[in-house]
């Protein structure tokens, strides 16, 4: 059976740009200056690593937990209850893959409880055989642990499993874990490293669906 693992933020949901907007509003309120550079470095990492990045960028005296709580409240006020916009093509690709007999997992650096809440609100939870959250593994991307955990639960061979990612750290994790990385860029365009590590770089999920369902199956 063919297997695939999706990232969530920036792949399934158009969430990263919305989180950045909330961070920018929070940063402006507290005189933090331009928060974009710090935020970009956090894409694809878990909450613990994101805190480290912000403290490295702004200094150890930054009240990060306070500001992040404020940012998070703003985000949830705006986008909870199914209001978080989805990436074009996500329903179509999930339905097509499941109908074709694929095993489908989601592996997100976001906490699993939040992942399940967002999937449920969007009506997408039933499409995934396995869901791994960032709080279920010790090492964040770019370590491959989260994808390896998903593959183990799928009983899938990483070398025969596709990973759909938008972030640099996600592609690094998929590559280092021996998966087949597909990059669908969101906030960051592919650079030379991404072009060397991603097997495919595609514009959107419609192109991913066309690729996967037109290829000769990798499993007999």
Walk me through what this model shows.
- By secondary structure, this protein is of the alpha/beta class.
- It folds into 2 domains: 3-14 and 86-214, HAD superfamily/HAD-like (Rossmann fold, 3-Layer(aba) Sandwich); 16-79.
- It is 48% helix and 10% strand.
- It is built from 10 helices and 6 strands; from the N terminus they run βαααααβαβαβαβαβα.
- α6 links the parallel β2 and β3.
Overview features:
Rossmann fold, 10 helices, 220 residues, six-stranded parallel beta sheet, globular, alpha/beta
Short account of what is shown:
The chain has 220 residues and is of the alpha/beta class. The chain is 48% helix and 10% strand. The longest helix has 16 residues, at 64-79.
Our Rg estimate from Cα atoms comes to: 17 Å
* Second rung of CATH, namely the architecture of the largest domain: 3-Layer(aba) Sandwich
What is the tally of beta strands?
Answer: 6
Largest sheet: 6 strands, parallel
Strand content: 5-15%
Strand order of the largest sheet: 3-2-1-4-5-6
Number of domains: 2
Task: Describe how the helices and strands are arranged.
Layout (H helix, E strand, L loop, with lengths): L2 E4 L9 H14 L6 H7 L4 H12 L5 H16 L10 H10 L3 E5 L4 H11 L7 E3 L12 H10 L6 E5 L2 H9 L3 E4 L8 H6 L2 E2 L3 H10 L6
Parallel strand pairs: 1-2, 1-4, 2-3, 4-5, 5-6
Helix pairs in contact: 1-4, 2-3, 5-10
């Amino acid at each position: 059976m063919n297997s695939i693992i999706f990232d969530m933020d920036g792949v399934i949901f158009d969430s990263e740009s919305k989180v950045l907007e909330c961070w920018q509003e929070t940063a402006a309120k507290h005189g933090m200056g331009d928060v974009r550079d710090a935020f970009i470095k956090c894409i694809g990492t878990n909450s613990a690593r994101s805190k480290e990045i912000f403290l490295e960028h702004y200094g150890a005296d930054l009240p990060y937990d306070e500001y992040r709580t404020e940012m998070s409240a703003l985000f949830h006020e705006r986008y909870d209850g199914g209001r978080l916009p989805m990436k074009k093509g996500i329903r179509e690709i999930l339905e097509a893959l499941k109908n074709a007999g694929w095993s489908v997992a989601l592996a997100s650096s976001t906490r699993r409880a939040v992942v399940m809440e967002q999937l449920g609100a969007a009506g997408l939870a039933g499409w995934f055989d396995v869901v791994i959250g960032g709080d279920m593994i010790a090492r964040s991307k770019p370590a491959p642990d989260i994808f390896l955990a998903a593959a183990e639960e799928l009983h899938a061979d990483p070398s025969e499993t596709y990973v759909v990612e938008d972030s640099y750290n996600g592609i690094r994790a998929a590559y280092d874990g021996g998966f087949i990385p597909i990059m669908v860029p969101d906030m960051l365009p592919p650079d030379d490293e991404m072009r060397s590590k991603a097997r495919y770089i595609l514009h959107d999920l419609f192109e991913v669906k066309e690729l996967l369902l037109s290829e000769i199956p990798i499993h007999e």
